[in-house]
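Exercise 7b. Backbone tokens:
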């Protein structure tokens, strides 16, 4: 693990013995000046501590990297971040990713370039263990300097005003009932989540261990008021869906972080019962006073979630949500490694695009500079046979089937987040012939991804 010293600043990876000290260093960094937000205290002292000690299996006690000032008494902790290990799917093909969370520098030590050193250590560790990408959500622009690009859009958020939800007509009965999830629901919830993953190019599947701890917290009456709750929808005693909610984004709103249903459910016919159920269930979960203040449901997940296909337009208002970005930053350290991993998807796409199903040729992806290594993709008989790093030996030498991308912009094409046509409007230096553009569109079409941040 990386350890380095510079001007008395020492970088190191944590051990179990550092976690309490790290909590004390983190909390003031994330608290706004002259204010104490209870949720921040919970996030650091409860959530970070549990996660760092292994709960939910995102990280181990050794996965926080931090800098200390050895010129101070007790080697003060002055900067830190954590590296989580998570899983992501690309059209169903799984791979491990590094998630970077809890980024901070103690105020007197800012603007000294400590975070760039920490990020180097994080990327080195993540690349070394074979993660095909790293993701971060947060500070606008800042992470671009560490080779991140916004490439997993969540899109516009939506809310439902409670006064737009029709009341139950007299004599009618609700078509769904709600109850707290129990550990016996784990598999069924993961199956519902899988239904979503099948409709999504990129997908972060719910993590069993995380879900388990959230369910235990939901049914624990002494859990923190910030605890997420996992709730089941039932029809005649059978589970048909579930959602995860919390209540701290805004005290006037119910925040739904995630929702999924059994396949073959006709959601439009039960949508009003679903909406009323969420309101009634969450009102009961809040104390009476805050329940009275509720005005809206915030939907925290992707604009393209299939749930919205069933939500009548009069119940959906586009909105921004507190502290939530419209897109996730992605760093792909080596494009060739990533593409090699998803070859079966590329072969399916070639086979489905009939006129390319027997294609023989090579596609060259050129990112203009060696700093962002290009890729050579060889296709034989409609199958990708070789993917390797590539950079032209002579820039002047014409290469057929070549596409130029300004650094990092290819990430959006690779993940299907944007179409080539959309990117070309913004980047005139995406240089490509018409024929090569057709091949790129076949291999990397714009695709729907249901992105969300359920943690
Ligand atoms: C954001 C934070 C980590 C930046 O650390 P820092 O030590 O102040 O800044 P760095 O030394 O890393 O700055 C490197 C570069 O980023 C720029 N930068 C710093 N903060 C930035 C911000 N918030 N947005 C955009 N750019 C920023 C700097 O100007 C510098 O650019 P330059 O080299 O062109 O001058 C630090 O301000 C912080 O801890 N903030 C509070 C905690 C927080 O918000 N964490 C994120 C939520 S998890």
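Sequence design result:
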């Amino acid at each position: 693990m990386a350890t380095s010293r510079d001007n008395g600043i020492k970088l190191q990876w944590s051990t179990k013995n550092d976690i309490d000290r790290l909590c004390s260093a983190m909390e003031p960094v994330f608290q706004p000046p002259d204010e104490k937000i209870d949720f921040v205290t919970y996030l650091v002292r409860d959530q970070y501590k549990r996660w760092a000690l292994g709960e939910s299996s995102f990280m181990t006690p050794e996965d926080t990297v931090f800098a200390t000032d050895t010129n101070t008494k007790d080697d003060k902790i002055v900067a830190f971040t954590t590296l989580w290990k998570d899983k992501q799917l690309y059209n169903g093909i799984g791979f491990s990713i590094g998630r970077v969370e809890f980024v901070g520098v103690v105020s007197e030590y800012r603007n000294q370039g400590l975070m760039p050193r920490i990020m180097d250590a994080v990327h080195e560790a993540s690349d070394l263990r074979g993660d095909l990408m790293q993701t971060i959500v947060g500070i606008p622009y800042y992470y671009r300097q560490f080779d991140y690009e916004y490439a997993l859009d969540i899109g516009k958020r939506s809310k439902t005003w409670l006064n737009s939800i029709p009341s139950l007509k007299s004599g009618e009965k609700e078509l769904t009932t709600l109850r707290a999830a129990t550990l016996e629901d784990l598999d069924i919830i993961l199956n519902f989540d899988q239904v979503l993953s099948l409709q999504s190019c990129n997908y972060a599947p719910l993590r069993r261990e995380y879900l388990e701890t959230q369910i235990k917290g939901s049914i624990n009456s002494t859990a923190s008021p910030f605890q997420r709750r996992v709730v089941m929808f039932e029809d005649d005693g059978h589970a048909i869906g579930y959602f995860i909610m919390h209540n701290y984004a805004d005290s006037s709103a119910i925040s739904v972080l995630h929702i999924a249903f059994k396949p073959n459910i006709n959601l439009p016919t039960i949508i009003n019962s679903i909406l009323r159920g969420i309101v009634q269930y969450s009102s009961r979960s809040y104390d009476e006073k805050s329940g009275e203040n509720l005005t809206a449901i915030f939907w925290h997940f992707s604009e393209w979630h299939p749930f919205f296909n069933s939500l009548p337009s009069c119940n959906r208002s586009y909105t921004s949500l507190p502290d939530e970005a419209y897109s996730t930053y992605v760093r792909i350290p080596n494009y060739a490694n990533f593409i090699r991993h998803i070859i079966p998807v590329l072969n399916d796409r070639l086979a489905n695009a009939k006129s390319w199903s027997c294609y023989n040729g090579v596609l060259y992806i050129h990112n203009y500079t060696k700093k962002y290594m290009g890729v050579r993709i060889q296709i034989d008989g409609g199958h990708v046979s070789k993917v390797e790093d590539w950079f032209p030996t002579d820039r002047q030498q014409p290469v057929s089937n070549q596409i130029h991308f300004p650094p990092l912009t290819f990430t959006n094409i690779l993940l299907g987040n944007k179409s080539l046509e959309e990117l070309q409007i913004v980047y005139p230096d995406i240089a490509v012939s018409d024929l090569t553009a057709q091949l790129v569109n076949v291999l990397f079409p714009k695709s729907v991804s249901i992105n969300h941040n359920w943690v």
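Instructor comment: The chain has a mean pLDDT of 94. The chain has three domains: 4-136, 157-319, 334-443.
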